Amino acid sequence: MLPNDADPSMDKKIGSTQEWLLWVHLNEYVKLKDEQITRMRFRDNLLYVTLAAFGGVISYTISNPSQHYYTFLVLPWVCLILGWTYLVNDEKITAIGRYIRLTMTEKVGKLVNEQPELLFGWEIAHRDDNWRKLRKKFQLLIDEVMFCLSGLVALGFFWELGPKSWNSPLLYTFILEGILLCWLGLWIFIYADLKKGRSSNSSPP
Q1: pTM confidence score
Q2: Is pLDDT above 60 for 6?
Q3: pLDDT of 13-59, one tens digit each?
Q4: What is the DSSP string of the chain?
Q5: Residue 7 lies in a domain
Q6: Which domain range does residue 185 map to?
Q7: Distance (Å, rounded) from C-alpha 97 to C-alpha 89?
Q8: What is the model's pLDDT at position 36?
Q9: Total domains in the fold of the chain
Q10: pLDDT tens across 86-122, in order?
Q11: Count of CA atoms in the C-beta half-sphere (13 A) of 86
């Protein structure tokens, strides 16, 4: 039975349902933005934590390079742990933005009879400036240098300053760290969101 064929109170009930759904979506939006902001702060602070960790390890190493050269094997683990944590949070930040732009705008648009592209305008506007791609590519370069190249450089220093004869555990650790750093660099590249406007990269497999 169609709403117009029912009693007059049916339209009011449907209207109340739409208002309730709109309230749910708007509250979801607020919660998502709160989570996004929290993750942004945590992600950005990881850069300072990484630099502080680098400073501590390097200062200890250069105090006596001939004896403390092994600490260069610590830096790749710092890069891997903090880099992966940075990447996970960055991906969630991007995923929240993508969900708001592509899914939530569709849901809310149907309830308010508005084009999805006109809703939550800032979610699109901040991605639509002419310098976005250049800025994101530079950010990608910084992330790769911070979390991958620096770890590989540390392995290079260990290779130069390390013992002349390597035992198996030391060699396996060296190789494993190199592989994991390259793997991390690949995922940082995969998750880089370089597109403009409302569109976004599809999620990696």
Answers
A1: 0.80
A2: no
A3: 545 777 888 888 888 999 999 999 999 999 999 999 999 999 998 88
A4: --GGGS-THHHHHHHHHHHHHHHHHHHHHHHHHHHHHHHHHHHHHHHHHHHHHHHHHHHHHHTSHHHHGGGGGHHHHHHHHHHHHHHHHHHHHHHHHHHIIIIIHHHHHHHHT--GGGSSHHHHHTT-STTHHHHHHHHHHHHHIIIIIHHHHHHHHHHHHS-SS--HHHHHHHHHHHHHHHHHHHHHHHT-----TT--PPPP-
A5: no
A6: 17-190
A7: 13
A8: 94
A9: 1
A10: 999 999 999 999 998 888 888 888 877 777 777 777 7
A11: 26
Residue 6 is assigned to a structural domain of this protein = no
Determine, yes or no, domain membership for 41: yes
Residue 112 CA, distance from chain mean position? 32
Q: Mean pLDDT score of the chain, rounded to an integer?
A: 83
Residue type, 175: I
Residues 6+ apart with CB under 8 A from 201: 192, 193, 194, 195
**Would you mind telling me the total number of residues written for the chain in this entry?**
205
What pLDDT does 15 receive? 56
The verdict on residue 203 lying in a domain is no
Name 69's Cβ contacts closer than 8 Å, sequence gap at least 6.
61, 157, 158, 161, 162
Best CA proximity match to 146, nearest among 88, 175, 188: 188
Mean per-residue pLDDT for 1-16?
49
The answer to whether residues 150 and 48 touch, using CB atoms and an 8 Å cutoff, is no
